[in-house]
Design goal:
By secondary structure, this protein is α+β, with helices and mostly antiparallel strands. The protein has three helices and 13 strands; from the N terminus they run ββββββαββββββαβα. β2 and β3 form a beta hairpin.
Length: about 180
């Protein structure tokens, strides 16, 4: 049996889970999330034990994979409505900066024009200063996807390390031409 899939998901106080057909809805202090799970998976809510269990019909390879996936998605929903998921990005480079105007994130990262990215409704975006971006949301996928979209505008390059990176990300640096010859 799947090691991840067989673990029950404990429900903290203040979190309610409802299963209606193939839709799981989780409600907590940070909002409500919905997931349409695979029809072969069975999501069962045990109110007495305050836990959610995901079951699969048989031991086929695909069902084993879907079992762990469904359990992880529901667990992330429960975690998201209790504590928000957070991603931090930093901008490195002379003159590189970010600003928020309305519902857009404006990035000045060495292009002739300012790159304007619409901030998704599920994600809150704040700037601690003009080179550090903080993204928060109850939806783990929305935070990760928007962080990846921001990073893709100007990924860190290996020679000077300039670009947008996740906070704490290590960029492997290369020696330039001046150091290569002998």
């Amino acid at each position: 049996m799947s090691r991840i899939g067989k673990k029950p998901i404990p429900l903290p106080d203040g979190v309610t889970v409802k299963v209606d057909g193939g839709v799981v809805s989780v409600k907590g202090k940070n909002g409500e999330l919905k997931l349409t799970h695979h029809p072969r998976m069975a999501v069962v809510v045990d109110d007495a034990a305050r836990q959610v269990v995901v079951n699969r019909p048989d031991e086929s390879r695909e069902n084993k994979a879907l079992h762990g996936l469904t359990r992880s998605l529901v667990n992330n929903m429960v975690l998201g409505v209790t504590t928000l998921f957070e991603k931090k990005l930093e901008i490195v480079g002379v003159g590189y900066q970010a600003s928020i105007s309305g519902k857009n994130l404006d990035l000045q990262v060495g292009f002739a024009n300012i790159v304007k990215l619409p901030i998704p409704a599920a994600v809150s975006c704040t700037l601690t200063d003009n080179t550090h971006i903080v993204l928060k949301s109850a939806d783990k996928q929305a935070v990760g996807q928007f962080a990846a979209v921001i990073r893709k505008v100007r990924p860190p390059e290996p020679y000077k390390g300039k670009g947008i990176r996740y906070e704490g990300e290590r960029v492997r640096r290369k020696a330039g031409k001046a150091f290569a010859g002998g």
